[in-house]
Structures are given as C-alpha cells and as structure tokens.
Amino acid sequence: MKPTGAVEVINLQKIYGAGDEAVHALESCSCEIPAGQFVALVGPSGCGKSTLLNMMAGFDRPTQGEIRLDGEILVSPSIQTRPNSDRVVVFQNGALFPWKTVIENIAYGPTVQRKLKPLEALDQAHAILKNVGGMERIANSFPGQISSGMQRRVEILRALINQPKILLLDEPFRAMDTVSKSGMHQHLLDIHQRFQTSVFLITHDLGEAILLADTVFVMTTRPGTIKLKIDVELPRPRNKEMTLTEEFTTLQKQAIAAVHEEARKAFERGEKELA
Amino acid sequence: MFVGISLSVALWYGLVNWTPFLAFNRLPDPISVMMEWISRDPDYGLSIFTTDYYLHIAYSTYRATVAFALALALGVPLGIMMGWKATFHAYAGALLDFLRPIPPLAWVPIAILILPGDEPAVIFVTFLVAFFATTLNTLLGVRSIDPDLIRASECLGATARDILRDIVIPGALPSIFTGLQIAMGAAWFSLVAGEMIAAQYGLGFMILESYNLVQYPTIVIMMATLGIVGYASSALIRYVGKKMIRWREQSLGGLSGDMPS
Amino acid sequence: MDEKTSNALNWRGLMAISAFFLAWYLACAIELPGFAEMADPIQVMRMFVSEYVGEANYWISWVTSFQRVLYGFLLAQLVGIPLGLLFGTSQKFKDMFFPVFELLRPIPPLAWVPMSILFWPTNEMSIIFITFIGAFFIIVINVFDGVRDIKKEHLWLALSLGASRKEVFVRIMLPSVIPSIAVGMTLGIAITWDVVIAAEMIASDSGLGRLTWEGYVSSTPEVLVIGMISIGLAGYLSTKVVHIIERRLMPWRRG
Question: Which residues of chain B neighbour C119 with C-beta distances below 8 Å?
C-alpha cells in the first residue's frame, strides 16, 4: 500500500485583520512532510507555528498559498477542508472530554463517525489501550482522575484509533516535567515506529525535536517563514541514550544558534503569543 | 453549632418577653410559636397536625414546581441556543436585557390583566424570575466550554448535532445546575410576593393573612416552613446535579458545584 | 461557537426589541384574548408625556423608591461586610452563629413583612428593613466566600515578612475581599430593587411600586406600564452605578 500522509506547505501567507491593525502571521512559508515521516517545527513564541498547524487541521485558511495532503488541496484562500480524522490534533492543554471515561474518549472517533457500532468501537478502544498504551486499568477512569502524562497518552490513542494520515501535535508536552516528558518521548517514538503515521510536532524543546524527528524546521519570528531545515540523520529506532552522542550535540547546537537569533529578535519586539 | 442556635433562640425569647420595648413585646415568642406548631389543637388552626397546614404547603409547592419546570423547559434550550449561535444571541440577548431589570412583582398587575385569573398570574411571575436565572447561567455555561474540546471533536468527525449532544450539553451542565439552584431560590422569592398580593391559599398568602387576623405565632410558623421548603428544594436540585455530574465529583480535587444562592 | 458576540446594542437587538413593541401593539389592536383592556405602547407614551413627565409627584416617587433602596442597601453593606469578614476569620464565631444564619437565609425577604411591620414604629422603617434583609444575606455570603478564597500563601508571606495581624488584615485581607464585595453588591442591588417594589406594592402608599399598583387598582393600564418601565429603568440605573463603583474599586480589572 502506498504510504499516505504526505503534506506540502506551499508559500503560505496569513494576515489577520486589516490596515494598521493587521497582523502578519506567516509569510512565504514552505515546508513538507513526506509520507510516514516525523517532522518537527521549532521557533520562538508567537512566530506563527500554531497558525500553521491550525490551517493543516482545517480550522483556518491562508490569505495566500496552499497546503496539500497527498497531492490534494487541503486549504487555500478559497478552499477550507473541514477538520476530519485524516488530520487529528493533540492539543497543548489537553482536550479529553472530562465527562467521558478514558475508554469512551478513545472510542469517540469511530463511534461518532458511524464507522463502527458503539460496542465494536469500545472493543477496539480496549485493544488499543491495552496493546499500545499498556494502560488497561484506567479504562473506566475519568480524565480528571489520571495524571497529565497518562492523559496525553490517552489523547494520542484517541487520535490513533482513527488511523489518521497525519498526527498534528501542538506542543503537547509543554506543561510536563522532565521525567514525564522523557517517558512521553519514548512512547511517541515507539508509536511512530509501529504505525508509521506522518507526524507534525510543534515544540519549544529543541532536544525533543531532534530526538523525535526526521526533519526539524526552524521558523523565524513574525512574520513566520522557514529559516532553516535540519535533516536529522540519527538511526531509528531511537532512544534516550542518543542524546548524549556527538552527532546529537552538533545538531542541537545548530538548532540552538538558529532559534536564539530569532528569539532575540522576538524578545526585543516584545512579541505576545499568537493564539 | 447548637450553642449558637440555642443562644439565638434564648435571645429571641428574652427580647420579646423581658425587654421594655413595645416593638419587641408585640412579636410572638419562640415558646408560643413552638407550642402552636406542634399542638394537636392549635389556637389558630395551623400546626403540623392540621390538614390545612399541608394544604398551604401543597399550593405553594405546586406553583413553585410548575413555574420552575417551565423555566427549565424554556430557559435551558434558550440559553444553549444563545451560547451556541452568535446571531441568535444578538436577537435574544437584547430583548432579555431589556426585560430583565423589571422586578418580578412589577409584572404582577399586568399578568393579572392579561392572563385569565390570579393563579396563572402568580405562576407566570414566579416563572419569569426563574427563567431569567436559568437562561443566563446556561448561556454562561456554554460560553465557558474550552474551545479546544470543540475543535478536538471536529477532528474526530463530529457533526454539529454530535457536538451539541456530546460536548455542549455535558459541558454546560455544571453551570446549568448552579443556575437552577439560583432559579429555585428566586422562584420562592417571587412566589411569596405574588401570593401575598394575589392569591388564595399558600404560604405567602397565609403570612399576610395571619397578620391581618392577628394570629402572630402562625406568621412565624409559615416563615419557618417557607425556609424549610425552600432549602429542601435547593438541596434536591444540588443532589440531582451531583448525581448527573459524577465525573466532577470523582476528579482529583473536584469541586462540589455548590453555590450560594 | 463564534466569537463575534458583544453586548453592545446592535441592529439585530434593536430589531428584536422593535418586534416586541410591534407585537404588543398588534395584540392590543386586534384584541387578543386578555389584551382587551390593555393599553398599547402609543397610549402609554401619550399618557406618560402628558400627565407624568411634568408632574412633580411622579418624580417624587422616583426619589422615594431610590431612597429606600439606598438606605436598605447601604445598611446591608455596613452590617453585612463586617459580619462576612467575621465569619471568614473566626472559626469559633462561624461554628456558633453560621448555622443560625443559614437557617434564616432561605426565608424569602418578603416573608418578613408582617414581622417587620409589627416591630418597627414607622412604615418607612419596616420597608427599609425588608430591603436590608434582601441585600444582607447576599453580601455576607459573598464576603465569606471571598475570605475563604484568599490564598493562605499570601497571608503566610505577609506574616513572615514581619507584618502584624492588624496589618495583614488591613493590607492583605481587605483588598483581597474587594472583588467579592463587588459581586455581592451587584447581586444585591438587583434583589434590593425587587424587594422594594414588592414591599411598596404590599405595604406602602408611596413610591414607584405603589404607583404601578394604583394603575392596576384604578384600571388604568397605561399607568401600570409607565410604572413598570420606570421601575425597570430605575433598577437599570442603579446597576450601572454599582458597576461604576466596582470599576473604581478594582482598576486592575480591565477586560
């Protein structure tokens, strides 16, 4: 089967508002996510990373340029493909439904799309929770009762069960402590290894980006455009120990230099976070 | 806590019987109220052993329940619509803001004029207050839903109807129940006023009537009964709310959804 | 959900309100059941302009009602805020007297009318007492909640920096409670108006509530409506005043 989930971002421009109040979020922004690859996007706060992700997900459309998924236009100034389970988002602050149990959350996609009968969906959810998550015991807990690390993992499972073409992760581990984060990294690496889904990860954490991704794009401050593309040639399957190697450190230095320059510019301008 | 209560009751008794102020002396004292309340043959005809007592309770409760049920049936859907669709809010919001400042009692004369009979008028006025409270709180509840939840459900393939059923309503439920508690309290408030002005039977009516008939202990009995019934109805709503919102109760550090009404 | 909502009066809102007036007018014109004796908006306007705007008595009613609201409301704040603070700071006091408070709270303010009339020497005082009851319970609860919500860390910090108990109270506790006081006032003013009007209808011979009631009793529906609208307006104005006070007290709450 031909691998799917290849995304092309072509000359994207996004301007909010008009006249003096206009905010130039993105300008001539281009990058690509080959099918089945893990791509990370890093950059200073407020540079437009989330704007790009939102457009990929179908929550917004560009003022100019287009985004294609497997050759078909996803969004353009005149087209906005509605959000669907081809591109599922995992949100920064978590978006599990608090009033549904873990298992109900995971089963939500297939159930609501009428792809499976409710009981079948629950069965599948149990399977994925057990086999991929290894967290069978929390199946009937509510999101409020489990730790944030587990919540994130459940949210990823909730996305994966729909067999999306691409997984969109919007700084999902931002609020987590180092230990939990490190567990999440391994988990994400395992999942990517297993399912070969395309992944687009937005993060502040450069080490995280290099450890997880095949390619790291560095974005400039507003108006955001891609400044640097770093190919991460570390072998897969990856693990935490690789962060100590010389190759890793070199890549990291490269990324840090690029991002710092942009961060300094943003700081001087007193940028506020874009939504 | 009984110390405080006994002290207060003692103070009440003392003030009524032992102080030289006519103002206090005119009031009924706790003993006579209590004796009357639990007497099998009350001087003024109302105690826990007389059927009339329960008749008045029934009338008031019936009116409050009908008004409340109407407010719930109309207010929740309206609040959801207003929170959900901005255009709807633009129309309805202005109208509600325009009518809301008018105190419930001010509606009584008009209600009596337009509606057939006093009974519907009293229920209408009670309904109105509960309605505004319910609508407002439902609206706030819908607005307070984390937009990421909606976006997440869209990614997962939910249609507008799914979102309404799976996200909006459960999400707004805590606020809705807070609103219902407030609505209940407000309902009793207007009901009493409405009964005083325009009803036969009922606790509010009896309060004024006892005053007119110089049956003072009965006044206090009715007041106390009102307090009890009012409290019980709010407690009932809180209880139902807790049952329906299990997920909050069980969460780490969950809130209990109680609100001062 | 769209983010385009705003509370400013927009054309849609105006349309809705105009539709309301139109429906009212038509209901009277075609004599819908119940509306046969009702006055339509134009009749109301006419009577208002000719017999009320210039009439001193009308404006005196405004003043009378406003006075009652003011006294009752202020009294409730003066007694209620300290009481709420007391409940929040002294566990002993709270254990002793909060149950009494909670037992009295569910009793609707108007149920106090006869007791109030019996007790107070003048009618005016009994009305103000009822008004007081209306706002009193609300402000106490809100202040009490406000005190409970104060982060212990703030208090400990102050104490560890060498503040005396009195200083902690004045400089940390009081300012922290101001938002709750504001909420209590906003809720309280609405209730206060409701209560004043009700009390006036039941037990008084002056004020806007009385005016409205007289319209009913004398079968002049125009007066009824004039009374209602005046009351609504007065209530709206009071709420605006409380808002201004709120803004002054909390300048940091912009948007």
Answer: 23-24, 26-27
- Spatial CA neighbour of A218 closest among A270, A167, A269, A253: A253
The full set of domain ranges for chain C reads 1-37, 39-249
Sequence-ordered list of residues with C-beta below 8 angstroms from that of A15, at least 6 positions apart, any chain: A22, A23, A24, A25, A63
Q: What percent of chain C has pLDDT over 90?
A: 10
Could you count the other beta carbons within 10 Å of the beta carbon of residue B236? 12
Per-residue pLDDT band for B257 (boundaries 50, 70, 90) equals very low
CATH number of C39-249: 1.10.3720.10
Q: What is the pLDDT of residue B260?
A: 35
For A213, phi and psi rounded to 5 degrees? -95, 160
pLDDT of amino acid A96 = 94
Measured between CB atoms, does A142 come within 8 Å of chain B? yes
The dihedral through the CA atoms of C95, C97, C99, C105 has a sign that is negative
What ipTM does this complex have?
0.87
Would an 8 Å CB–CB cutoff place A99 in contact with chain B?
yes
pTM of the predicted protein model: 0.81
Q: Which CATH architecture has domain B33-97+107-244?
A: Orthogonal Bundle (1.10)
Q: What's the CA gap between C174 and C20, in Å, rounded?
A: 45
Q: How sure is the predictor about A87, in pLDDT bands with cuts at 50, 70 and 90? A: very high
Q: Does B174 touch chain A (CB under 8 A)?
A: no
Quote the minimal CA–CA distance from B248 to chain C in Å: 20
Cβ-based contacts of B166 with chain A (< 8 Å): 97, 100, 108, 112
| A197 vs C164: which has the higher pLDDT | A197
User: CB pairs below 8 Å between B and C: how many?
Assistant: 198
Question: With contacts defined as CB-CB under 8 Å, which chain B residues touch C98?
Answer: 1, 4
A174 chain-B contacts, CB cut-off 8 A = none
Packed helices B203-212 and B169-198: angle between N→C axes, nearest 10 degrees: 20
Q: Which tokens belong to A54?
A: 């939102």
CATH homologous superfamily of domain A36-86+166-275?
Answer: P-loop containing nucleotide triphosphate hydrolases (3.40.50.300)
**Segment among A198-207, B176-185, B248-257, C115-124 with least mean pLDDT:** B248-257
Evaluated on CA atoms A53, A56, A59, A61, the torsion sign reads: positive
Report the SS3 class of residue C201.
helix
Predicted pLDDT at B256 = 35
HSE of C208 in the Cβ direction (CA atoms, 13 Å)?
29
Mean residue pLDDT of chain C comes to 83
As a whole number of angstroms, the distance between CA A161 and CA A159 comes to 6
Instruction: Kindly state the average pLDDT of the residues C198-221.
Output: 83
Helix residue spans in chain B (DSSP H): 2-18, 22-25, 30-38, 51-84, 86-99, 104-114, 118-143, 147-155, 160-163, 169-198, 203-212, 216-244, 246-250
